[in-house]
Write a structure and sequence with these properties.
Helix content: 10-25%
Strand order of the largest sheet: 1-2-3-4-10-9-8-7
Radius of gyration: 16 Å
Strand content: 25-35%
Largest sheet: 8 strands, antiparallel
């Protein structure tokens, strides 16, 4: 599968294989294996933690649910779990806005500009079905290039009890 098809599918249904906002962390690791543990997102607490499968970054809450999903696309090659995208999981980056919009349109995924994340040298669009955001860097005198794709959190209010090990 090509990267544009992967991104359009993710934007249309709000998930990438077993990864979606609110997914149980044990289900994700069971399907994809052990990720890179990037570390805590806070100096004072152990959770939430940031994990990565190549360029797919996941924030996991102390209740062990996926709370945020981010796909870094600014590197030379975008690495995704091969088990959910097929092939090697490596894709060329440098995706142009026109190509992303065309892929969304081809997949029947409606979108619109997203003003809260459009300013300065970046612009963002949001996919209506899932709320996925596509943020583009705008190099001087060049066409906008995809920088990052994010799926919104599920807005859960974590009910996991805080224990000494979670701090």
């Amino acid at each position: 599968m090509e990267i544009l098809g992967v991104l359009a599918g993710m934007a249309k249904i709000g998930r990438l294989g077993p990864v979606f906002s609110g997914a149980d962390w044990s289900d994700v690791t069971s399907a994809l294996g052990e990720p890179w543990d990037i570390g805590s997102m806070s100096r004072n607490r152990r959770w939430p933690r940031l994990f990565a499968y190549g360029d797919l970054e996941l924030s996991v809450c102390r209740c062990r649910k996926v709370s945020l999903i981010c796909l870094q696309t600014w590197r030379e090659t975008v690495e995704l779990p091969p088990s959910v995208v097929g092939g090697t999981g490596g894709f060329p980056a440098g995706l142009k806005r026109a190509d992303v919009v065309s892929a969304l349109d081809k997949a029947g995924c409606s979108w619109e500009p997203y003003a809260p994340l459009t300013f300065g040298d970046q612009s963002t669009l949001v996919a209506i079905p899932s709320g996925a955001t596509f943020t583009f860097a705008i190099p001087e005198d060049e066409e906008p290039v995809l920088n990052v794709v994010g799926l919104p959190g599920d807005g859960h209010d974590c009910s996991a009890r805080t224990t000494g090990r979670d701090h």
